[in-house]
Amino acid sequence: MKTKIFMIAALALLASAAPAVAASETEAAAKPAAAARPTPVTTKFDDWTMQCITSTKGKYCGLYQKAFATVDGKKAMAVLSEVEVMKSKDGKKTPHMRLITPLGSWLPSNIGFKLDEEKQNIVPYFMCGRTGCMTDLTLEKEHIDRLKKGKRLLVAYRTSPKKEDQIEAPLSMKGFAAALDALLKN
Questions:
Q1: What pLDDT digit, counting tens, does each position of 103-127 carry?
Q2: Which domain holds residue 19?
Q3: What's the Rg (C-alpha) of the chain?
Q4: For residue 8, what pLDDT band results from cuts at 50, 70 and 90?
Q5: How many domains is the chain partitioned into structurally?
């Protein structure tokens, strides 16, 4: 009985909405077609991907790689790494690497990263958004040189204050040097 009532209510709602839908479709047809959304151009560099979008405001390019970890026996996306280039007022191009962990990251523990066998670095999160919680690293020449020679960047974060709730996600550095060089040319 409840199902029949629900179906009747749903049909009544659709019937009452039909004139409004028809009117909005007529209005949409009368307006000129909206500018199409720019199509991203994607280029692979081994384990890194460069994506560029050109619009009326110019061209924007960035690098990214997703890192996965095993959580409770299941493979899950753990970290997204993005690299973009920002220009200063004097025109100098400076790459920035953003490390993004999922929502639910334990923020007081901060985020750690370690390139190959180097000592682990701990940095604070700077904000959380719809895509996750993130930190932003300015890549100076010495950092770039080490990253280009590196094999693996291990990113660690926690989901609670407990050490055993630490998640470690490896980012491959294979292709990073070529990808960053291409990014800096754009």
A1: 999 999 999 999 999 999 999 999 9
A2: 1-34
A3: 23
A4: very low
A5: 2
